[in-house]
Amino acid sequence: MKSDKALLDFLSSFGKQGKLALILLLGLGLILIGSLSLGGGDKATGEEERVAEMCSLIEGVGECRVMMTYRDEGEVFAVLVLCEGAESARVREDLTSLICSLYGIGSHRVEIFLLN
Fold first, then answer.
1. First CA to last CA distance, the chain
2. In this structure, are residues 53 and 98 in contact, taking their beta carbons and an 8 Å threshold?
């Protein structure tokens, strides 16, 4: 209970505008902490890793990395695949087909490059 009194004393030491500023700063801090803990990029990174895993199962594909860009929430804008084996036209076609099927996007939204 002593800490409650100390907090009330601290808050009462500010004027009305000071209290408002303090509340706004605390709110912004909570928003920032919340956005960091949610890890806005974690979902995309996890999905990119899963797609890279799927791509690496295709015959002729070695190590694989995937990057996705989003225009709007949940809407896949483009997919970039860097992988060993991309020098083969068959591998590029198979990868493009896989990604187009997974996301229901046109092949113009998929780029496949050789990973060095």
1. 63
2. no
pLDDT in tens, 57-93: 999 999 999 998 877 666 677 999 999 999 999 999 9
Which of 52, 61, 44 has the alpha carbon at shortest distance from 99?
Answer: 52
Identify the burial level of 102 via C-beta atoms within 10 angstroms of its C-beta, where 0-12 means exposed, 13-18 middle and 19 or more buried: middle
Place of tokens 């591998």: 91
pLDDT of residue 37: 46
Query: What's the CA gap between 28 and 34, in Å, rounded?
Result: 10
Retrieve residue 77's tokens: 């804008």
Other C-beta atoms closer than 10 Å to the C-beta of 55 total: 24
